[in-house]
User: Fold these one by one.
Assistant:
Number 1:
Amino acid sequence: KWEMVEYLISCIGDEDARNQSCITAAIHAMKFKQMEKLESFINSMGDSERKDNWCREMAESAQIWRSWDVVQILTKAISNQSLKDQCCRRFANAAADSQDLHVRNFFVELSSDEELKQQFRIEAAGTATNNQEKQAAGKGLLETLELLSRKSTEPEVREQCSDVLAQHEADQRLSVTVAARHIGAKGYAQLVEALLNKLENESEKRALCMISAESAARNGHFELVKSVLQGCKNIRLKHECPIKVAEVASSCGHFEVAKHAIEAIEDQKLKNKCCLKVAEAFGENRQLWITKFLVDSVADNLKDQCCNTTTPPAAKNGHLEVVTYLVQEMVDETVKDQCCKKAAKSASDSQKWDVVKFLAASIRNQGQKDECYASAAESAAWSGSLEETKDFVNSINDSSIKDEGYLRSVESAVNNLKLDVAESLLLMKFPPSLKDQGCTVAVKPAAKSGYFDFVKFVIETVSEKQVRDKCRLTAVEPAAFNGHTEVVNFLVQSAEEPSVRLECCMKAAESAQSGGKTDVFDAISKEVDDLKDEGLKDLYYSRAAESAAQCGEADAMMSSLRNVRDAERRAECDRQCALAGASFGHETVVERFDIEPQWLFEFPPLLQFFSMMALKNENSILDKTLSTMEPAEKLRLLLLSIYSEHVSLAFAILRQLTRDVFDLPDSEGATALMLAADAGHHELIEKLVELGAFVQAQDSHGRTALTRACEAGHVRAAKSLIDKGADASHQDDRGLICVKWAEQNGHSELLRLLDSFFLRNENRAQEEQLSTELHELFNSAGFTRERAECQKVMADCLQRIAIAVVRDDSWLTGSYAEGWANSLVQVNGRTADDSDIDWTVVVALQKFHLQGGCSEAGRSQPAVATPASGVRPRLDLCHAFQCCSDFCTDPQKIKLITDQLPKVHLTYHAKTLLFFMLEKHGTEDFDLAWQPENLISLVKEALEMMLSFIDSSSSPDECMPHFFMSDASLYFKNAGIGGEFDNTKSRVRLRLSEVRRNIGDMVNVLKEHLRPLQSQNFFFHPFALLPLASPSR
């Protein structure tokens, strides 16, 4: 959901956090190949240096995997040109090396490094020259082949030329490389000789010889190889060609070709090097003569090395004659022993036992010989070769190695289920104690696979009773887990001691529960029920219940618990089962028990379980437990949850606590708020304060929650506390304030936050003083609650007089009626010159019928304005007519008022804004927000709210939501008219922002505008305020 990611990133205020989020999002965009999103997230990073370094590192990683599209985006996003040029040079060279020429060109063009551009221009020119030379060479070869096909005296040559030319016509391309590869694959020896005589260019001859000889060696064309090697005149070619031919021929199994090539090498050092390189391939060959040739071809001082390389592959393939020769040729005894041991391992893996016996016997060092026999015995036992296994074990001289080899052989045989071999080994003549160890090793794999007869044989073979019991306990668990009831029953029933039998039963029950094998568990339970000792029965069923709890088998657990008779043991078992269920996250198990409060403080897994459930918002078990706890225990649990950083659990517990316990301290005087501050849980801090926690509470050292957050360096927590009213200037018992704690611990980001707090406090002090002055000025001008109430009483009186005198359905509307007064200078009952009194008359007995809407293009104004005269203020009389229906066929909006209106906005918007502020801060005068010193901050808050309303709608005409009608909006005046009113919204927003930034200018205007009252009296002339006329009926 990339849109959600982008929105969340845009909501992050902290720049470092936002940059890190952009990096995380960009990494996921790369992972999912979302190139557009990758580019968007990179461009959203504000720190250019951090962005450049990250882009460089990620581009280098992407280049390793040749993800060139990612590399291009990342490199292009680097702002620092010098760093970008370095990356371009690196990636251009890498792309050129991998033949990604279009990618190389991209980085060359992106770079501003002229040296790099010049370098690739030269390389491009060289590439073009090489291409031209290749084209010329191909053309010359084509002409030579055509000439030979017509004029050669040898029929074979002409035929071979025709074949090569036909290949050229088939694929429409011919080069020396292609032709030489085809000639070598076909074995055209005569054609090679003819071409070497005709071609004049030495590089073409060299290419022809090397490629055709290599191709011929791969396909075993001895005559062509022989012809090429004999025709080599160039010294360098004489050295390189035979070596290459020998390597290719030996790897493909063409040893006669390889032998001839080695013989053609004149330089002994090069011959030695070639022989050592192809020795392993020669060792796989069954022919002794070729091996002898190879060994004879190397210098004497390298013969041991050659034999050492050749022997293991020969041994692996079972070439006893070759192995015998190679071992006998080695002179150094140490090298020979190491070679024989290594080769014996290869032969053992291939089950070449005659070769293994020879190699082991050839080792002179007795210790290495014994180890070789032990390893061979283990391999033989694994493969099921009984006689070889016995021979190898009996051949070991050292007793400790022999014992170890014997046990490893038994284990190897059983692990591969070669039980007949294992049984024979266990019957060999060895000390009983060693055979008992072998039985201990052998019984578990057999029991796991359910081999009853073998398990029975092993148990009966063990001579010592203690070891026999150990075998039973070892074998019963895998047998039960895999559901082998017969094996389990035998192991249990064959136990002589009741305690051993019970232990077998308990282990079997636990494993059967883990493996879900109810039939095994039922069979074991029947065995236990036959016991007479009730204590042993309780022990068995309690262990079975705990095992079932660990596996999440609630029903099986309860079934076992019901069989526990002893009340004390049952209580302990309940606790252990609940703990086991919680440890493994099994809700169905934990919900079966009444969790005692003390368990939560004693067993961390229970606390972890409830925290996990709280994360999923599944708190039914927790609520049940909390309902049994005292308030003090709940608070203790809350403090423990916060201390253990189980935040989700703390939130769940908060819902069960009352406000009066939040500030109760622990033994060290720390409240829940302080512990949350210690851990930096800002969400929990905000919730605690919201629920009534006191931010200025102090611990035993005089530290507040904010002090502790600053000591720990938690910026978000400190900000939340400051926003909630915490005092950053508070001094603890040592006289340290928050700034000092942050300085001592090197929390630079926290220091910046505290600096802004103190600066804001200084500004706030100035604002509070200015607010008080402005409030006094408003009071002096009559803007008080009492005078507003008087204004409303006068308006009500005037309304009643109008109805009585005019005898019409007349209604007083607007600011005069609402208590705002119709003067923004002073409140004394008089109407300001730029204001009026609004009357609305609902005309009776007339009903309008609208057919299809109004098509009139002109403007209309339903309100009739009466100018001021003497003591009479200006009046607006509006006649309102009823309509037969609110339905209109015209889908366009009908604008009833489109006349020229003042370029101001209605006070209705201001009133609506005030309603939203009242909803937020309360309507009582004793509410903290509505204090005189907060006047400026309230104005700023209201302006910010207004700006957010404006920004919340994309419509150019909508201003803000209606307070009383949630599905309606308030619009800007003259919205939709067009012309100069098109940019009304942007102009209003700009002006509001300016006022918000320069609040002092607004205060100065108010100071000039407001006029103190000369008298406390109100001016009220009711008959001068009534409308002059009423409409005719």
Note: The chain has a mean pLDDT of 80.
Number 2:
Amino acid sequence: MKIVDFAVKRPVTMTILTAVVLILGGFTFSRMVVDLYPEMSFPAAVVMANYSGAGPEEVESRVTEVLEGAVNTVGGVQEVYSISSSGSSIVVVSFDWGTDMDNAIIDIREKLGVVENYLPDSVDKPMVLKMDPNMMPIIQVGISGENISLSQLQSVAEDKIKPRLERIPEVASVTITGGLEREVRVEVDPVKLQNYGLTLGQVNQVLMMENFNSSSGQVKEGQRQYYIRSLQQFETLDDIRAVAISTGTGATVLLRDIATVVDSYKDDTQITRVNLGSAVGIHVMKQSGANTVAACQAVKDELKQLQSELDVGLDVGVVMDQSVYIEQSLASTQTTIWEGALLAVLVLFLFLRNMRSTFIVFTAIPLSIIATFILMYFNGDTLNLITLGGLALGVGRMVDDSIVVFENIYRHRSLGMPALDAALTGASEVGSAVIAATLTLIAVFLPIMFVEGLAKVIFKPMALTVSFAIFCSLLVALTIVPLLSSRILTDDSMAKRDSGTGRIARIARTFGHWIDNLGEVYTKIVAWALGHRKTVSIVTTVLLVASVAATPLVGAEFMPAMDSGDIAISVKTDKGSQLENTDAIVAQLENQLHEIPEVTTIFSSIGSSANMFLSSGTQYDQAAISVKLVDRSDRDRGVDQVAEEIRTKAAEIAGAKISVTPTDMASQMSGGADINIEVKGDDLQVLRDLSEQIVAVVRSVPGTREVESSIADGNPEIQVKVDRQRAATFGLTPAQVAAEIKNAMQGTVATQYRVEGTEVDVRVRYVPEKHRDLEYLKNLTLRNNAGVGVKLSQIASFQLEQGPTQIDRVDQVRRATVTGNLLNRDLQSVITDIQQQINQINLPAGYTVEYTGANEDMIESFSSLGIALLLAVILVYAVMAIQYESFFNPFIIMFSVPTAFIGIVFGLLVTGRTFSVPSFIGMIMLVGIVVSNAIVMVDYLERLRRRGMERDAAIVEAGRVRLRPILMTAFATILAMAPLAIGLGEGIEAMAPLATVVIGGLLFSTLITLLLIPVVYSLFDDWLEKARRFIRRKSAPAAAAEGEVQ
């Protein structure tokens, strides 16, 4: 083989090339971006539009439906999901995977531009954003201090900290929550306003017209040209107080005569606390493509510098730091790689019984890993949990080719061949076999490139990483291993193989003798199997059928949960609850959390929902609490156990619905809740009734918890219905009435007042009343443009109702969503039980039920991966058929694939793990691994038969000779993956099912195929021989007749 000849005969060249790889690998490794998961872009966009003062149903009919109609005309749209709530419309547009989102955003903006004129005048211009994981904060900071007011904390955050953090190149944006925001209030006396015949609207308009800064052209003076700027800005509060307002009689009144102007703060809409103390929260988002670890470190360095510059007593502390978990996860994965490598070395030493020999084979691991970093870097991959997990999976496979090559070189060397000749002959003999084995494993990953959805986004980088690693290991096996063998396997080295006297050497000798004896026993077993082919076939078939029958016991889920030490708590109080009431309930829960020893950080946001991105407006009746636990190595309990204790404590708190959910990146990507059931239809009341029935069904199924419907009790409303005709008699329109009510109850921001370099809102409102109740609303005096007043009760009626808090729609149809979480059961079995009961519900015409979320993702991913698995089998066969120019041998080898399923089911049942996306990836990977052993055996068997050896004798001899490399490669792969299968480190839980599948499948496949492949080979060889004889008999008379004619 030319590559072997080149490597062995050009040692200097190979040394230089190896040095180049090592240097370049170290350089590229140091420059690779570090993140938790591969860079991903979700094919989704968000359209947001504000419609101040409108209720959910009005927002739906006048805004959301218009926006939905526009975005539905964009090409490639898969689904349109919308939320209509008070004053806001949010439309989420999902596209097919692979869509160019930059072009899609442009198309959406163009379509929205066409329909903007159909929206009400008071609707803000719709804003379009790309759904990006980078919109989630990578680091959260809490600012607090003793005897420091929230307004001061807010000022420090806005004026000092935020600008400094936004200057960091890796930072995209910084947002601030909590605190008190400054505001100038113009509190108008309604009696004085009435006496002068004025309205709040007129006050607003005058303030806006009296405060401006605009360019007014240019003027020439001599040789110079001057720009004209008209300045009429408020510089002090007295400037505001001195504003003159014309009355209807032609008189003028100063603002201070009818109103009080005060420097104050906006009403609390959100409260932030960190570890039970009042604080201001800062959320930092990174630039797309930036190194998360580097970005977090840069932020922390800047915060450290700021802390030294700020006043004494101010505490700037990091509450959540994504880089900590990333670094812990990557460190755990790297440790797993080296643990696997050391275990693989142990296997090599036990089989080879010589440190020099072990060193030769072991070089494949570090050289392959370093070379892989080069390929990853130029492919644009990042160092993350998935790519490093791919390296951990490939560690055992990295030495397989080197084992086969070295073992054959060593065998020739043991027979007395010179080192150089043994290296050339031994490597060349098995070169085609290791190339075929490597190509088959690479081939199985090709179909993953065509899998759609989240599974492809996550596992495509892993497939590429493993492919890079085993390709590099093949090059090492065909170059470095023969080169080192030709130099290291000297006569002296061969003589010292069993000369060690230490305990390890004695263990290795004992193990070696056991393997030698096993080889003799194996030849007898193979001989017996060839005489009892029917028995071997039946036993294998029974085991395979039993494993298929046991599959339902395994269960299935989309992605396995990971213990990141993060817990999300959602608090929902009674609808209409005031912020103070929600705050009091959260304070009780915070005190309970503070008593749990594993809890290190409590970050509470009162006045916002858990899903901050898809929520809008103020939600006084909701709160979100983020709980961070101490590192996994510092606690005895898992995150699920701590969450269970929190649920127990939360159950003691009355007046709120509290849900507790351990969170990680995987759960966030799959939609949050474990169970998602959608009910679609037009009527909200029917949807409410159906969703309540489904909630009862789900709660009755064992293994479910925290079940709720998205159609909850609505906010209590006082609906003001204006009598158009009576309002018209007073010169008022319904729109004017609505505007005056808003002015009276909330006030209106008329303009901005610039102070100390900051724009401060100037809000005009009536003097606050102690009792703003229904009676106050009825007696509210409204004035028309002529100054004539009328009480609101004279032109409107009032009704107490409970309207919807929000209206959800999917593909322009209203929907209700029932969500829930799992407890000690897998997703598939729970959904199956739920479906059986829901199928008994008689749905009205036009209403449907769909199972979405993690279940939908699981079904779609399993379907795509199932096709990928089938394609992998076909590709493996095709590669072998091309390599050997034969249909027969690859067909025999493929019998090793189904036997792996026996070990897959056994491994998952024993470990208590389920079928999941990682499990499926492991099955695909296993197709390429298990055939390697059969390839090695059948390749040598065919070589012996070509030399003239009888078939059964060749089968026995091939088994005896290839038993050692087969066991060596299998055990090296299994032990190298064992640390990953145990899954004790941070972040590697997601890869544990994959490793479990590979270990179980490879173990059983190796043990079974050592007998099955010889049996199947002999059976099909007999059938093939019978077919040949039959053809010869049929063709003989025809040949004889043709001879007679001639």
Note: Residues 188 and 790 are 18 Å apart (CA to CA).
Number 3:
Amino acid sequence: MNKMRMKSMKKFWLVLSLAMFCLIVGSLWEYSLNDWSADKKLFLFQERLKFEEKRLDDQLRKLDYEAERKKPEWKGKQSVLVGFKGSKLVYWSNERVGSPRLYEILSAGNDFVKINNLYFDVRRHVVGDTVYYALLFIKEDYPYSSNYVKNHFNPSLGENLDYASKVIVREIWEKGGQLVYNRDGRPLFKIESRVERGDVIPSYFLLIPYILYLFLLFYAYEISLDRARSFRIQLFHVFGFFFFIMLLRSLMIDYKVPQVLYSLPIFMTGQIGGGFIVSVGDLFVTMFCLAHYFFITFNKLKIKYDEPRLVHYKYIFLVGFVIGVFFYTNLLHFSINMLIESTQVSLNIARLINVDFSSIVAFITLIIAGMGFIVLINSSVRYFRNLFSITQAFLGVTGVLVFCAALCYFFNFSLSPLECLFPLALYILFILGVYLMKQDAQKSIFMIALVVVCIYIIFLAKSSEIHREHGVRASFANEIIKERDPIFEYKLLEVNDKIKQSQEVDSLVKVGDLDLLSDYISSELLDMTGFYYTCKAMICDPRDSILLTPTFKKYSCDEFYDKLIDSLGTRIGYTSFFSIKDFDGVAEYLGRFSFSTPQGSNCVYIRFKSKNRHEGIGYAQILSREIGVEKEARYPYSYAKYKNGILVDSKGDFSYPRYLERFGKIEHARIMNMDRFSHMVIPVENDGVCIVSLGDDVFALYYLNLLYAIFVSGILTSYGMFFRFDRGWGSFRQTSLTLRIKKNIITLIGALFLIMTIMSIVMNAKSFERRHSSKVIELSRYITDELEHNDCMDAAKCPQILKKLKDMSEVLWVDINIYNWDGVLVATSRPVIFEKGFDGTLLNPKAFEQIIEKEQINFVQDEKIVELTYMAVYMPLVLENGERYVLSIPYFTRGEELNKDILLIVIIAVNIAMIVMVLAFILSSIVAERIMKPLQVVNEKLRQMRVGGKNEKIVYHERDEIGMLVKEYNEMVDKLEANVKKLAKSERESAWREMARQIAHEIKNPLTPMKLNLQFMQRTLQRGNMEEVRQRFKDISAVLIEQIDHMASIASAFSDFAKLQEANNEWFDLSELVNGCAKLFHENVDTMECDIEPNVSVYGDRDQVNRVIVNLLKNAEQSIPEERKGHVLVRLKTVLGKIILLIKDNGCGIPENIRDRISEPNFTTKSGGTGLGLTMSYKIIEAMGGSITFESVENEGTTFYVVLKQDN
């Protein structure tokens, strides 16, 4: 025992040392990566830059050997090769560098250039009459950032950043930053890093030592519970480890350590509820630790149920457990509510839309939390079984939970009183299973409980998400009602002072040219790129008037605009601009400025009115600076605005009626259902109504998430991770044949369906892509047919073509680009996209090769501009006059439509796969049970097989492998029965021989002294001394009588042993019998302690039980050495329908090497006696359906336990 404890101790310290080693390694590794000085970072950056420059130089030198080729082959995603013969561009590997000034920029000889918002390091090489420039990409630098425009850094240069705008690149003459040199030693640019902790994306390999640390920590905790000597020490470890985990979690959350963990997106989702669940990641870690803690604790906790203190305080034990379950239920309920209401995660996994990694982690987290809940209840009920009857357990649990429901009523708990029925229902389910069902059937109870918990989680998640959606919809409606544009308002703050101080504006006002004034303000003072507003300037002369229809009221110009501002305007900051809230579906701003004119001081009113916010998609999305509420919405809302009962603006999938009457009378905000949509109707001042609608299909699949929950929990429980039976930890790692069959069936079905699902998605995606390609090719042919009648497509020669392209673009909702036969852009429907440097003015090199060099009639490929991926279609355009061009259509709609089609297929396929997997779980159980049922019958019969008992044969008619096994079993039964008869006969003969030998031995022992005494008597008679003969006869007679009595007692003992089965059973008072037997030995020991429960009755033979008690008391008395004060404890108690008689002494104990033989007949350690006392005691108690066990420690004493059934 001591060796095992020492081995366990060494194992514990080894695991703990490994855990600390992993923690130290992870911390030092992370520190070494994060603690870099600015000089070290610059040095590393320059070294990587020089390495990339060397690679480019090597590629440029290879061009010398490829000079005979017409076209060089250039490799490298982060570099571009361009070639010039003289000033003519003859080669380019990427269209992004296309610019009218490209030759001018590169031929200037600068090593560092900016082309179309891209910074490049330039390497130059001459091959013959061609000058090649290799441009190494450094960083993007767009004029602004938006949803679709983000700056990126060259990842090969080592700046692994999530947001590259924090690394600023400057020209060498600008202030600030550190100089960066090329490999030739010339300064290139300055770089200034504003990267803070958390901006750098760390290597997630750093997580490995921290994960190992956590698992090793729990393993050390498991070992510590195993090696604990007593229940009290175990409790110390349990509570100590719990507080340690809570302290560790608190430090992690407060100090955001380890940093690599808190750089994960799931740890940065915002505040949830405080404490230990401030983010989705923190919630996952906390729930995983709690569930793992429960699993290890309740699997390893060793409770002595006969401990007097536990028996005395067992109701406190029950109350503590149930209250713990109540608080854990509160935690689960609180986590679900706060997780959904305070984050953007969606637990509607079945719908897949808006489901990201955080949502999946949150979903799995709640399943783990629910399984920890099951572990807690299941384990507590198993403990209750050893302390309470089923009635006591049921009433105790019900009473405590009713009290907890009252607490929920009077105090602010997350649970409602009615929701306390959920843990009560699970308690009742487990009480019925544990108390009334066999262990094999209890697994079914566990699975039922698992389904119940999954239903509860999904139901609660849906109700919480619907509640969150209502709040989101209300916020969405509020933003729509405001009709304001925060980003444009920020621009108005900038332009306000410019308008007041501008001499040009002052001059235009004096001239009175309103069109020039409007154009100057919108184009020169205010950069309107990405803003879709019309600008109109108005100069109010005191003589001007405005006539309003249909009221035909006349107002002076100043009076009209001033009244408009006073009644509907809201000042923007301290500017002269006002937001006009007219609830007409557009954002409107009105500025009021005073200027001096020859006629006097006049007011100039500048009016900005929003156009359609989305002038198509694609290029318009790139140019847009707006972050509209529509883009922030988590749900596919439709909305409408009504003014005076007439529709003024609408958007979305729902078709709104022109008049408001269809929605009924609207007096206050409410939610109504109509036409498979949920409508939130909100009245607005000035006779307006805002309606925000959401389709019922958004939550239609929510209960299908139950299948996902069951699937996830099934995977966890398939390996026994979270449920416990009383067979120990090792049983969870044992794999039964039934489980192997289930796993093989599930794996096979899952693998086949996974392959089929992937193939289906891939094939359908290709089909959809071909369909969209055909559609855009047809669109391109239509545009080609429309344009080929023109005489010119070059905007430099015929500017009117730009208007035609723009008109076609607006009608067809596509952008149109025209390239000449040299691959240079000559006309476009969206010139600003190239003017602002978002794209290059060169034809895509692959399209150039296919259309111009190989003369293909069309070419389709996927391309990307900033953050948008689209399908680009190229087609030759030949005018009637013979001029050739290349038509390019960037089809952005394809991405959205294709994604919707593919997503629909994925949703259907994944949900069908989930249904099939759940069915596979169910069917695998049925199939496995049908296969295993005959084997279970064989196993049960083999388990019940007894030597000398009645062994039944198995009836099985199938001629299969199991039938052969059954046949062998039946033949074995026949052989066993024959062998039992032979064995019984042999044992009877052996028993009689042994009995005869023992009787002969016991009789022979007294015969020897009897013979010697008679021989001595004969010699005395021969001497003739009658007085001596008389005395000798008297002495010999006494000896002979004593020996004869001893022989008679031996015969009686063996006779009694043979008659044990003849018991005279009756109900008698065992308490009285034990008390009487104990009194007989009061004088034989120093201390006789009695703890006897009164009125304990038992059914049996009173005399035989008396013999057992006397025998045990006599053995206890005789085991105490003469030099030791004897102490004997006699205790009689009833526990859970069982009678327990305990007799404990402080004698010399039973040596370990003979403990297995004390119940054998004729075995004794005393010099006298037959050795039948304990054998007879064992047989008497076993005949009554009870048992005798003992515990013994050498030189300390022995405790015998006699256990009888109370209702026997």
Note: The longest strand covers residues 130-140.
